[in-house]
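Same chain as my last thread, 168 residues:
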Amino acid sequence: MGDVNESAVKRKLGIPNWRNLSKDKVLKFAAAMPEMATEVRLKLIEQFPAFKDLGKADIDAVTEAHKSTLAANENSQNDFYKASQDQRDALQADLGRDDLSWAQREALHDRLDQNLRQVSEKDSENKQFLGAGMKMVAAAGAAALGLGVVFVGGKLAGASQDGSEESP
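reply #2:
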């Protein structure tokens, strides 16, 4: 399938010229690289040397967004835990009163139990959120690594087909 030329690649990507290669089309471009002739592949890569920088910019953007999300999440968690602790403190103070009936004490204990369950549920929810965030960052990193492998693999394949590597 090494007979795919530059025009065919642009048609496949739906772009009139390489300036129209958007970030979302880079992955399609990388996937099409194995179908290209080595000369075409190298020629195309030379036309936009910022190929590597494009992937790095995406990773940087994902990383920054993830950091911002983690900071907002931490603030939200801290606010929730503070409010929960304030409620427990108030309930504990109420339980210290001598004028409460057994039913009132039981109701306060139930509210303490409910508060602790909510904290536990929030903790589990937060751990799932953080796990999903890590998966997203890992996927972005894997995509960047994949693009790098395609890029380097394309150059190496071109070099070996051109006979520029030394034979043993």
